């Protein structure tokens, strides 16, 4: 790998008040090669790198009273909302009902221990804002800052982050709680987000900011 341009990292404190953690698409299909993506020839094993950091971030948020919102990539019955066939092996994925409503592979991974009172947003496009109830939920909860993690960095995470930044949310991406199929693509997605759409941080920055806070900021 050639030398990569450094990602501009954010070194300030992260807010805790009016803040939510957005967990993007941490579903079984994106981590298990026995599910439809793997069977269609897409090796999802590199995405497992996002699991430890995401689990730690979710646990930290819960302990600090910060709400956690999950998204799932789910197509409607019959995959009527599949849309134009972009991406890898779309015809085979359609034939396999990949990420289809009601399938076990669309469920969030057990490691997250999703609670009954936590919000889950289903979507059928990369951005969690497009065609979903996410923005009304954030408005109703009084959320103005988003801390984003999950998969994949340069598709669903980045699409959500771009939409959040353009809506003037304070937006942070946790570098060690996201993952992509290729290391270079992961790096330059973070590089691009840090350039204009979000602050890129590490899990240790979140912990330092929240655990060390005596009052919400």
UniProtKB/TrEMBL annotation:
<protein>
    <submittedName>
        <fullName>Ureidoacrylate peracid hydrolase</fullName>
    </submittedName>
</protein>
<keyword id="KW-0378">Hydrolase</keyword>
<dbReference type="InterPro" id="IPR050272">
    <property type="entry name" value="Isochorismatase-like_hydrls"/>
</dbReference>
<feature type="domain" description="Isochorismatase-like">
    <location>
        <begin position="19"/>
        <end position="204"/>
    </location>
</feature>
<dbReference type="InterPro" id="IPR036380">
    <property type="entry name" value="Isochorismatase-like_sf"/>
</dbReference>
<dbReference type="InterPro" id="IPR000868">
    <property type="entry name" value="Isochorismatase-like_dom"/>
</dbReference>
<dbReference type="Pfam" id="PF00857">
    <property type="entry name" value="Isochorismatase"/>
</dbReference>
<dbReference type="GO" id="GO:0016787">
    <property type="term" value="F:hydrolase activity"/>
</dbReference>
